[in-house]
Structure formats: structure tokens, C-alpha cells
Records
---
Amino acid sequence: MMDERKRRTIGGVGDPVPKKDAPALLSGKPVYVEDIAPRDCLCVKLMHSPHAHAMIEDIDVSRAVKAPGVHCVLTYKDVPSCRFTQAGQTYPEFSPYDRLILDRHLRCVGDPVAIVAAETERQALAAIRLIRVSYSVLPAILDAEQALDHSVLIHPEENWKALVPECGADNRRNLIAAGEDKEGDVEAELEACDIVIDRTYSTQANQQCMMETFRTYSKIDAYGRLEIVSSTQVPFHVRRIVATALDIPKSRVRVVKPRIGGGFGAKQTAVCEVYPAIVTLKTGRAAMIVYTREESMTLSSPRHAMRMHVRLGAMKDGTIRAIDMHTLSNSGAYGEHGPTTVGLSGHKSIPLYTHNMKAFRFAWHTVYTNTMSAGAYRGYGATQGLFAVESAVNELAHELDMDPSVLREKNIVRQGERMPAYYGETADSCAVDRCIARAKEMIGWEQKYPARMMENGHIRGVGMALAMQGSGISGVDTGAVMIRLGDDGMYNMSIGATDMGTGCDTILAQMAAQSLECPVDNITVHGVDTDTSPYDCGSYASSTTYVTGMAVVKTCEELRKKIMRVGAQLLGCTEDDVLFEGDCVQKADGSERIALAKIAEMHMLAGYEDISACVSSGSPVSPPPFMCGCAEVDVDPMTGEVQVVDYAAVVDCGTVINPNLASRQTEGGILQGIGMALYERPSMDHLGRTVSNSFLQYKIPARIDAPSIRVEFEPSYEPSGPFGAKSIGEIVINTPSPAIADAVYHACGVRIRDLPITSEKVLMGERE
Amino acid sequence: MMQIEFILNGRKVSAAIEADDSLYSVLRALGMYSVKCGCETTNCGLCTVHMDGKAVLSCSVPAARCEGHEITTLEGMQEEAARLGACLAGEGAEQCGFCAPGLMMNVFQLARENPHATDAQIDAFLAGNLCRCSGYVSQRRAIRRYLSMMEVQG
Amino acid sequence: MAKYRNYVMAKTIEEAYALNQKKSSVIVAGNMWLRMCGLKKQTAIDLSLLGLDKIEETEDAFVIGSMTTLRALETDSALDQAFGGVFARALAPIVGTQFRATATVGGSVYSRFGFSDVSALLLALDAEVILFKRGAVKLTRYQQEPWDRDIITHIRIAKGQRAAVESVRVSGTDIPVLVCAAARSEAGIRLVLGARPARAIVAADGVDGAQMETFEHIAGRTAFGDNLRASAAYRRRIAPVLMERAYTACREE
């Protein structure tokens, strides 16, 4: 029976099938936003604030309006006065409504001062140079440490609004969120510990650097509605955000997502959509904005820079009894994802050490500053928190003179344990112990720990880190899938989940093929168009495989029933007497069968029911994937240069749906993590201007920087996930920073607690 | 405005250009949508095309300089693209695909200059083609396979 | 982005020179960095039709056309043999092969970028810059002069030298944090420091039998600055290390 089912299913769960869009992408077909935009789109350009904090005293656009080719010049006087957030999040929206499309009050360098739309890019840029603005410059807060209760208020406006007051936001204090989560008496436990590691760590506002910058075009469609085609991870949220910002009914907005050139969380914020949208509304013309790389590096949605204070208490035998952590998160000029990212810094790091934990406390503040607004970036706070907690665990191992892998084995969460610091959820699937064991074998931990001197005078050290993440947001994220039976017995699957290059169109089709016992080529996938796709919150929070994947399973179950019902009708028996066989429905006794293609044909005639199903799914839990990463670094002790020479990683993401695509996610995430650890230096001058504003000044890893990255899976089986799957997309970026920092420490005795790990810090740092 | 003529994917074309237009903007205007732009600082490699059989960054080639030259984009190399594309797709190495056309154009150049390239030589030759999705290791494998496949075919 | 009103494909070097005498003109070489600088000019003068892209070998020198690409320098077999592959090693980290396929040696030399790997190596090799009007000028001198309106036609490098380049970079294709080029000629070993981050300079000349203390002394009297990539203090710390490595490499060659 199983064998038969396997034979019918081709490219199902566990197969490394190529992505469905691969032929188009690899022959250079015009499938991205800018390729499919109408040729007569107006070019939309923004005039940016030169000041970190200022009021527009006067703005004169009279010459710009008259410039050749110019169709529209908008200033703060021309936009609706209702505030909104660009964060693409589900109700209840945690991010404060603190933005206008254009505001008189400018809160960071780059903040838009005016929107110009002209026939050509040259004309739009020329018109911007004709706009005269006088600013009254205000004192700016550039340092997050200074922001809370500062006399300068970044959002003094009366109509500032926090939709979820429970998150502790208070614009009169420059505060976006504050809170505390705890269990047990952490002070008493720390007091009772033999050793307490008390350290502060910090991480930077890294840029996602997807190859396709932010871009959107909009037009008025045949029904007079505003159609927005955008490179976004969150089409349904964009519909709401644009409608709110423009103060028009959501029913007037339609959002389409074509192929996307990468997102990594950046496009979970509607960074640029409102600008062409308002131009189209004002002019009736199609309009497009394409961010330059400089705009994408200076006015976008980078990672929240965080400063984390960790107190980690343990006994001499290495049992970790208490963790106390405080995170200060810098959200920049606006609050996008500010209240939520900070939570992950503790909630997705502390629970790793549940096993012997007697008490924990996790407190946080997220503040406004006059810097670029932060947003969502792969890992979403967990990356920052894990750098702190994993580094602290590595420091504890050193203090105890213990192998850090052994220390971890002693304290890690076990399958079946309740995790108090993870909203009290239980680890129903957890193979982190096997991940550690296998990663050690792969890197050759026993031979290489802690470090070896090489013939050329360099030193090679190894380091380890663990990671966890979630799988969707429990009780919030939801995705629906619609599948219709079409001619020839093939299936049309509509999804609202957004493939941004990750391959979710393909892996969801693989799940459908598995459920419907057919070749994956029989499943067509379409997404996303908010007018026709079923609702999905979007692709973020590591939700697509787990949340939308479950919706695929449920939809297929319902569809099979309908097929069997019509099949039974055609076979002249009841549905209890038939079996679904993938390419046919047959009587249970095997006497008669009817081909699926025939059923498909017949159901298009009068008298038969429609064979389609649409089921949504959400989960009350968010089962964490787990991972162990081991780095081997080569340090030149004379220059402090650090090169990662080998990286071994083992991931427990539950069942692996597509080994190729899961491995690519992992390898790509690890290299981004290596970039964050070593190369990428978000930098600002004393006036708040981002100077790391290009690929020249912000170095993402190139091919020659990429080490051997070796990835394996140690699957557990997650009972609440589709075919036992959990998530993969985010967790993979979390281990490099702490693992590399410890490898560097083992190589040369310098402990780096503030990222990135530069050769200068390594050479000039204090040797412990 | 000035008028230039050049050979695009084997056919003579003419274009009205500004003195400071780049080859990149002319190619997009001519509908060569495989050619992408990922930066303004010559770092990303997305805009790679061939000029007289050499891989160049079309963002940095002055359009006016192209008069009479031969320009080739991925649109003009579809057979080769299918072969290399199959190797990349077999690994899932294209991911978002936005960097793929520029990368592929430079791989074709590599195949001409050094068909027996080692892994280190592949990485060095293609260092100017950034990719943020893949982590590169699968692309390296795919390109190695493509090169050995081309060798077998002679 | 650079802006021009007219783009002239010069037919002769005389025409290019005449056009370039106006302040509103600019020479376009590789158009790599020029494009990015936001310059606004009336006339852009293109030298690519003038045949200045050849590498010629004479009895005692290489004469390299100013429009020769970095990629051509890197892959030229005669240069490779004469200088033991140092051009390939020095130029390989510059952005990528496509960049080097159009970036020119003349553009690098004229621009006097502080971060230039090319200038550092050419300075060590005591290259001469051949200008259309002025004739031959030592690069050591040219490098320190302000931008002028003459046109570089060739770069001349004397044979019979051995050179080595050492650098520290944030990442493999980045511009250097510090670069040290060393060349050994009959006059001894010359050490050049570039990406200080100011213009590359000859840090020491005619060095022989040097020890680590010598390099530390040289670093001590050399001016370094801060930028995004590193502090002056770090540069001063690693300068002796790079000098020692480059010195040793070109002595052993």
C-alpha cells in the first residue's frame, strides 16, 4: 500500500526537486517587478532629509512643479494626516502608528521630505534639485543608551498611537516597548550559584542586502481600484498598510506579488509601497519607485541593534541554574517591529538551557532614536539574543575549564520538557542533543578543540553555538490554501504565502503531491494576488513550511473527500465504498475504477459538485527548530585577520521537505551570519548619516570569503507540523556570530563581545 | 541626444542615447530584462554582459563607447543558459534568481578562459558576482558540474 | 552619477589633448570610479579608439598603454614571467574579473586613489608615467602632484626587478585596509605603503638587511589616518608586519 502510494507520488515530501520557477529565473525571463511594470510608469523619486532631526520650516516646490516632465511634487501638506506603521504584522499590530507618508517633523537622515514623479528618472532627479527647503535643526539622539526619558522627544505628536498599550509604549519617554517575563526567584538563584557570568554584548543594525532592492509600481485598474505590484513578503499586510496610510477603504486596494529577488525580512516592512501609491492616486498614472542601493542601505529596515546584559548563574559542576537578561533595542526613528523583535532576544535564547534551570528573568526596553528605522531581519531578535546567551555560555565553559560542548550537553532542553522561558510551551520535538554530537564529529571537535598552531604561524581555533527559533507565531499566524481540480486531473493550488526565492511555491506543491498521491508537476502554484489568493499573513516568522504547509495538508484531505464523493457518484456507489488512488477512484473491492481525469471532466458538467477546497490553518504552538553550528577559524596573530575555514552545522527542522532547498537556506543563512560576524560594519557619522551606504562600504561576503559550509540534518518529528516538519528559514543565521567569537577566543585569547569581530579588535584587544 | 548602432545578440540595433547613459540603461530600454542592477558601485555583478566576447559590467560601460561593438546578454545565449541552468537548478542554487543572469554570463566567460578551473579558481573568477541567498557552496558545485559537462561535450 | 553633455570618441591623442584643456572636460578611461563620483562635465573624452591598450616589451622595460585594462595586466604572460606573477597577485583582489576587464591602468594612476593596489605596486617598481605633453615623469613625483590636464599615454616599468605585495582587507574583494608593495632592484629594496588611507608613498628606499626594528622604525615615521575600515593605530601596528612580509618575499624571489 505504502509502496504503491510512493510510486504514484513523484517529487513529494523528502525529494530534492528543482524549484518550479527555476527555468524562468535561469533563462533571464522578465518576472520581477521592474521587468513587468507598464512602460509608461512615472518615475517616483524621494527627496531625503539631510538632518537627523529637524522640522521643515518652509518648503518651496514652485520651480520643481514646473520642471520638464514633472507630474507631481508632494510634500507633507499633501498627504493624509492619519498615522500608520510600515510593519507587516497581523492584528493586533504591535508596532505603533507613528508615521505619515510625509511629515514636517523629520526624524532621521534620509526621512522623506518630498515625493517627485516625472516621466523619466533624470527629470525626477532634476526636479528634486529645484525644491527649496529651510529646516530648523533639532538636537538628535543617536545613541540608544541616551534615548529613554531624554528631554528631546522623537514622537511628541498628539496622534501617535500604540494599538497594543500592553507592550508598554510611551512616546513621551521615547519608549516603544518595555516589559518583563520571569519564573522563579532569579536573584536568589544567582545568589546560590557558585559562579555568575555577568557580561554585556552588543550587535549591530545589519542590512539584509537582498540583491533586488525595494521596489513597487502602482496603477489604477479597469475597475478604478488601486493595483499595487510590489516586491514584498506580506501582500495582505501591504493592502492594509497602504489603505490606512492613504485613508481609503481596503477594498479599493489590490496587491500583487510577482517573483521576488530576496527578502530576508526586509520586505516584511512596506518600505516603499506608499510612495508610488499616492502618486497614482493623485495623478491617475501608473507610477514606479525603485530604490537605489544607497536608499536600500540608508532608509530601509535593518536589524535592530541591541545591547544585552546577561547574568548566567551556574554550579561548579556546570549545571546552569539561572539566567537574567536585559535587552535594550534600538528601533530608530520609527517603531516598525520594535515591540516584537526585542522579545525574541530572550524568548528564543534562554529556553535552550531549560534542563537544570531553576529561575529566569528577561526584561527589555525598545527605544526611539534619530537613526534609520529598524525592521525585520532573518532571526528577528533571536540572532541578537543568541549572540549574547551563547557567548555567555562559552565564557562560563572557560571559567569552569570545561569543554563548551560538554557544558551544553549537560544543560540543553530535552524532548518533552516544558520551557518556561518559551511561553511555557513544551519541546515536543527536539534533537538538539543529536545535533551537537553530529556537529562535533563533522568539525573534528575532539582533535581540534580548542586550537592548533599551524606551520605558517597562524592559529586555528574552533567554537560552537546552539540556536533555536520558532515556527510561525503561535495563535496568530494563519495561512489558507485553495486547491481546485482542473482538466486532465491536474490541480491548481493558490497560496497567499510569498515565495521570495526560498522555494515555498515548490515545497508546498511537494506537500500537495504527497497528499494527493500525484507527481509534483501535476500541481500548479499561483500566488500572490490579494484579490484571488486565499488569505495568508505572509512569509515571515519562519511560518510558511509549518503554518501554510499544514493548510496544504488539511486542504488536500478535504479535496480527497470531494473527489471520492464525485467518484462514488460516477461509479454508482456510496463514498464509503471507494478508495482514493491518486490517479483514480476505485471501489474498495477493486472491481471498478474511474480515472481522475474523467472525474475532472465530469465535474465540469451540470449535476456534479465543484471539486475544490480551501482550508486555513494556524497553530496554538510554535515548535522551535534547533541547531548546532561549529566554526573553525584561522587567525593571523600578527595582523588579527580572521578567516572562517570550515563551518559544520546540523539542523533539527523536523521532517525535511526538500533537502536541496533546506540545505540552501541553511548555507545561505550561515554565510549571512558569517558576514554579520566578520565583514559587515553598519556605520554612521557623528551627524547620524549612514556611511556604510553601498556594497563598497558595507561588505557582504563574496565567493572567496565563503568557507566550506557543510550542512546535515538530524530530523525530529514534530507532531503538530505537516509531515512532521518545523521551520528552517531563520534559525540558520543564528549560530555563526557566537561560534566564531569563541573560535577566535580559543585561537588568540581575545574575547569579542561587540560585533563585528574586526581584525583590529582581534589584534588590539586585551588577551585574557 | 546621440544615436548609436551596435550588434545586440547578433542583430544590428540602434538606440538614441544621452552622452552619459550607461550600456545597462540602454539594454533595459531595449527590453533585455535579464540584465539587472544591484548596486551603484560596481560591486554586485548583476549587470554582467559580454562586450566583444568579454564579460563586462554594463553599468560602467558608457553607451556611447558601444558604437559598432558586439553586445551579448543572456537573451542571446539561451542554449548555454539551459545547460548551465539545469546544473544550478539541480542544486536549488539559484534561490531568488535575481543574480543568476549576471553570474551565468560570467560563468560562460570562465568556461572560455579556464574550462578546467579548480574550486578556488571558480571562486576567484566569479568573486565579483555577489549572491545573498545561496552561501555560494552549491553554486560552486553546480558550476564545476557544468564545466565538466562542457568538457565531455568538447 | 557623473553627468556629461557631450561624449567624444577622440580620433587622435592631439584631439583628446586639445579638448581636455577646458576645465569642463574630463577624460574617460575605465569609467569605473569616474561614473560614481557625481562629476558634472560638458565634455567626456573617450580614449578607447587610440590604441593605447597594448603592452609592449622592449629590451629593458615594459611600456604599457594607459588604456590597458587591469585584467590584461593580470593575464599578460610576458609581464607574468618578468615579474614573477606579482601583477596577478596584486590585482586579483580588485572587485571582480568584470571590473578589471574595463578598469584601466591609466585611470588608476591618474586618479591617485589612496586605496589603489595598482599605484602601490607601480610605485614600488619605480614606474614612469609618460604624459602626452610633458613626456616621462617618475610616478613617485606624479603621484604627489595635483590633477592636471595632460594625458597619460603610457606607463613604463623597468625590467630586472622583483616585487611582492602584501595587504590586509576587511573581506576578499574589498579595497585594502593597508597595502605594502616591495620591489628589489639594483638600488636595493623599496617599500611602498598604500591605503594609509591617504595616497600611497614610498616609505623607505634602498633598504637592505632590514630587521623587524627597521620596519617598526619606518612605520613610526609614516603618517597614517583613520577611516571606516581601521584606525591609524591599527595601521601603524600592522605596517611593519606587511613590510617585513613583502620585503622577505621579494628578497627571496
---
Amino acid sequence: MKKRIKRSLGDRIFDIVNTIFMIGMMIIMLYPFWYVAMASFSNSSHLMAHTGILLKPLDFTLDAYRMVAKNPNLISGYLNTILIVGVGTFSSTLVTALGAFVMSRKPFPFKRILMFMMIFTMYFSGGMIPTYILNNNWLHLGNNRLVLILPALVTTYNLIILRTGFEAIPDSLEESAKLDGAKDITILFKIIIPVAMPSIAVIILYYAVGYWNSWFEASIYMTDRSKYPLQVILREILIMNSTAEMGAGEGGNAVAIAESIKYATVMVATVPILCIYPFLQKYFVKGTMIGAVKG
Amino acid sequence: MKNKWKNLKREMKKNRQLYFIVLPVVLFYIIFRYGPMYGSIIAFMDYRPAKGFFGSDWVGLKHFSKFFNDTYFLRVIRNTILISVYSIVFSMPAAIIFALLINEIRNSKFKKTVQTISYLPHFVSLVVICGMLKEFLGSDGIITSIFSFLGGERKNLLMVPEYYKTIHVASGIWQTVGWNTIIYLSAMSSIDQEQYEAADLDGAGRFAKMRYITIPCILPTITIMFIMKLGQVMSVGYEKILLLSNTANREAAQVISSYVYDLSLGASYPQYSYSSAVGLFTSVINLLLVTLGNKICKMLNGSGLW
């Protein structure tokens, strides 16, 4: 083992200052969410009167959550989002795996030109309006949930991550299966995908987060409120201030209740993610690393 | 030539399955990526949805010269570049310094906790982040309260154009600084530990080691990141702008991409062709900048993005 050189005073002061700085950073990262949580449990009229730091709920109540639970839009938004995330992530991962499989195999004559075609789209795109006209006026996908999936089906970045994962698999595995007479598709599903599961996990998560967070597409293509995904409903409540209708009929207290409803809505939409991400972060980190190397 | 075709046909027959496997990806790129690229020629037309794509008149560069003479031309370009430059100037050093300090944490459990917590805002959706910002920056929001405690005026801070860019960039740093350390930390983890041990023997302090070992070792990573960011200087995304801007702060918040939206999908009389021309103009500039950045990267590092 290494010999510990006696730590100097300056060294120790550095550690202490650094620790304090890190604790400060953690507070800055966490406090906004803590504030939201505490505000969501607070009595709305007390909350209205309160300004400044909030450390614990003001007059604890679950009223805001009761209102949120009664909001049919939020429930349908959640269901739509779950549907889109589920179907979207599955199809995206499947199609990306098919593409990455061919792109990582050596004998394919169009590999280079195809790769160039894909990478080019990372730096140049047709833009917002031509995309809108194509999807809406030509393919008639407007107000169809498919418009939230099909145009976002493959991300070049994810395809590169998966191709890198596939390339790391030794050829010998594939060749022995080929000698047994296995076809390409069998090799992909029986050998390549199971072996490359860590990379598959990375792109599953990337796609899932992408579908979960996306709101703009739904806001321009969807006209039917019952088909709005969660983020569009959230935008109505949080950004466009449409909480008044939820608080209506609560004894003229609508404005006050609206305030805490917003915080409760943030909680309902965010807590599931915050509970999951610490366990999955290593896959995300791995993805950025592969992406950074391969660009 | 004929022989080549024959060979190709034979190869396609032999590897039939392979071509079926790749078909969905190829179709996706042709329809949803190259389709809109082809469609962007409406920038050279007077596109009317009623007349359709093939029935609309060609007008050449009319929309492009209209953009150069647009009263908002300078405003949107200025806002775009300023927001980009502020982002680069403040968020890159923030991430580098944060990574350097995380790297100095000795207790590995504490280090992991700091990292996990600093990633947190990255996982929250933009709509929620902007919703929180709207609440916190409102006239009785918590950030406004802190601001007025420090001597500022108590009012809705999102309504003040002068503050918009600061809010946009600072909240961006808050959301991404932890996540952006990943790349620098991974560069630091590949530094040879012997260098530090040798420096210890020479009696070098923490700052000396940072300055003479860590920073020079991650300099290539920093350069690549910097050049990549420069290549994106004209492309500020519209999503955050659309969520945070309002009539009061628009003069400071409107960037090229959100202007495209305001002209078309966000307008009561959409100007499809004109907004496409604005979009196409910036896409081409972006492509040139990225290509230039890649060239510089290759010159400095020997390897670029592609």
C-alpha cells in the first residue's frame, strides 16, 4: 500500500472547505424540490400569505392532492404518457437494435453511406415547418398518437451507442451459431441482444426519458384533449395557469387553492422519476461516456 | 458496371434477411428525416396549404431577403448568440470547477452522494422545471423574496426583459452542471495516479496538483467540448423559450428557433414559407459552424467528431 504522507494543515483546511461547498451544492440542488414538497402539503391560504424560505408544511393538509386526484385530465395524461412511453420505447429499441445490428456487421456493402446518412441528420434537419407539414398534411398523423412515436422512432445517437455495444461482441460467438445454421435474425435475438443487454438498457432508458419528457410535438399535433400526454397537461396547469377550474366551487377560494395545486401537481409528476433515477443512473452515465467517445 | 450490378444482386439475394432487417431504419430516415429536408424547399415557394406542395408558386430567394430586412432580424440573432455565449462562458467553467472539486473528495461514499444528488435536476422534465421557475420568480415567489431581501425590487422577475437571459442561463446551469461533470470526471479518472504520487513527494499542494496535473490532462476534453459548443452557437432550442417567455420579456427572449414558431404554428396567420426560410437559413449556418469546428478539432487533436 502507499505510504501516507502526513497531511498538512492547508490540506485539511481544503478538505473542510470543499466538504462545506459540496453540502451547499447539495442544498441548492435539493431545496427547490423540498420547497415544492412542503408547499404541496401546506394550507393554501397560509401559503399565499407566506413569502421566503419554507422548511416545513404550513398547517399540514392533503387538500391539494385531493384536488389533483379529482382532475380527470391529469389521470388521462398519465395513462396516455404510459402508453406512449411503453409502445414508443419498445418500438424504438427494436428498430434501433435492427439497425445497429446491420451497421455493426462487417459484410454489408451500404454500411458507410448509410452511416453517413444517419450522422448527417444529427447536424442538419428539415426544420420545424417542413416536418409539421409532412406529418400533418401529408401523412395525416395529426391528432393520432402515432405522431408522437413514429417521427421520433430512431435517434442516431442511440443507434451509435448500440452499435458500439454490438461491435464489442466477439465474432466467434456469431460464427459458431452460423455454423449451426442460424439465420441473421436468430443471431440477433438469441445471441447479440442478450449479450449486449447493458447497452440495450442504456438506450431503453434514453428513449423512455425522451418520450416521457416530450411535450412540444403533442402540443402542436394533438387537438383532442383526451389524448394529451402528461407533459402537455402539466404545461396547461403550470405554465398557462389553468388551475382555476379545478379550484372552482370550493367556496371562492379558487386562487389560493390553485397555488398549492400547482405544487402538488409537480410532486405527482416528478416523484416517480426521482424514486427511480438513483438506481438507474449508472446506465445513463455509461451512455454519456460511450456517446462522448464516439461523438 | 453490369458485373457490379450482378454481384450486388447476388449479394442481396444471399443476405436477403439482412436487407429486411435494415429496412425499417432506412425507411424511417428517408421518410422522417430526409422527407422534411426535401420539404424545406418550400422556403423558395409561396406555400399555400390549399394549393398544396406541387401547386404553390416558386419565388426564389424572396423570403430570405425578407428575413434580412425583417425588423426582428437583428433582435433574434442577437438574443440567440448572447444566450449561447453566456451559456458557454458560465456553464462550462462551472462544470469544470465542480468536477475538479468532486474529484478532490476523499470519502467515496460522500462523493457518490454528491454526484447522485447533482444529477437530480437533469432528470426532471423541462415543463416541470419551467413551471417551478414561474412559481419561484413570481412576485411572491421564493427567488423573488431572496432577491428583494438582498435589496432588489419585489416584482415578477420573469416580466423584466433585462433579467431573462440571466434566468435562462442560470437555471440551465442549475439543471445541467452535475450532469456535465460526468465527461470531465471520466477524463480525470484515466489520469495516471503515479503523477500525483510523484507530485506528493515534491510536496505539491492540492491546488498545485490541480493546476499542473489535472487541468493539463483534461485539456483535450475541454477543447473538444468548447469547439462543439461553439458549433452550436446559433442553435438555441425553442422549448425552454416557449415555456418561459411572455409578452413582457419577449424582446429579450425571442431567439431564431422560437421566432420560427411564432411566425408559423404560434401565429393566427401562419407564414409557412417565410418561417421555413428562417429555419433553413439557420440550419445551413449551423452546419457550416459544426463543420468548421470539426476541422479545428481535427487540427488540434488529430480526431474530430466524425
